[in-house]
Specification:
The protein is mainly alpha-helical. It folds into 2 domains: about 55 residues, Pemi-like Protein 1, Chain: D, CATH 2.10.260; about 30 residues. About 45% of the residues lie in helices and about 10% in strands. It has a two-stranded antiparallel sheet with strand order 1-2. It is elongated. The protein starts with 15 loop residues before the first helix and ends with a helix. About 0% of the residues are buried.
């Protein structure tokens, strides 16, 4: 575990070994994330659109699940309307 000191300006030096391991160079961006009691310094993605493309490729199809859910809801609404129409006609 490497330790760093915060300067008066709030700067933190990332140790050379860690910069080399993660390929960080001068000018690269990092994200500082507060996990409530601990901080994480995460290298920012250089091209997030390109790098995250296909991330959910092998997971469940959210579009398919949404369409199935809408179909169920439509069926329920149609049954309600038929019952309501019968009541109105019976009145």
């Amino acid at each position: 575990m490497a330790a760093s000191t915060i300067s008066a300006k709030g700067w933190i030096v990332i140790p050379k070994e860690i910069r080399q391991r993660y390929g960080l160079k001068a000018g690269d961006k990092v994200q500082v994330i507060d996990y409530g009691g601990s901080l994480a310094v995460i290298p920012a993605l250089k091209d997030p659109i390109h790098q995250l493309r296909g991330m959910f490729k092998h997971g469940p199809s959210l579009t398919k699940a949404l369409l199935e859910e809408r179909q169920k809801e439509r069926g329920l609404e149609e049954r309600k309307m038929r019952r309501w129409t019968k009541k109105v006609k019976a009145s």
